[in-house]
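Postdoc handover notes: sequence design on the structure in folder B. Input tokens:
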């Protein structure tokens, strides 16, 4: 018999537990728990719009590519910040990526 249970932690978070069969018959089946968020967890508001101007544009893709290639500081943002950007410095963009996107 299989059962699933949920526990609500607050208005937007809950845990679900149930039975998780293992494909390898040498091991016992086990229970498992998953965590769910109805909204983004506080402090984790990752956005592809890295410069924060509210529009996903080519410059945001350039910023992402540079970050992934290891660019930091001035080389990260050189000629890649929109005029209407709210995050205009490398420090602000790096802080967004680390604090909200979980990148290091």
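Designed sequence:
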């Amino acid at each position: 018999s299989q059962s699933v249970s949920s526990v609500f932690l607050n208005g937007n978070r809950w845990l679900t537990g149930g039975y998780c069969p293992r494909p390898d018959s040498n091991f016992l089946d086990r229970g498992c728990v998953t965590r769910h968020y109805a909204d983004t967890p506080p402090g984790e508001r990752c956005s592809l719009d890295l410069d924060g101007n509210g529009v996903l544009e080519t410059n945001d893709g350039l910023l992402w590519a540079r970050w992934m290639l290891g660019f930091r500081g001035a080389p990260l943002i050189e000629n890649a910040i929109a005029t209407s950007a709210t995050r205009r410095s490398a420090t602000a963009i790096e802080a967004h990526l680390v604090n909200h996107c979980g990148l290091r």
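Context for whoever picks this up: Residues 35 and 79 are 40 Å apart (CA to CA). Don't rerun without checking with the PI first.
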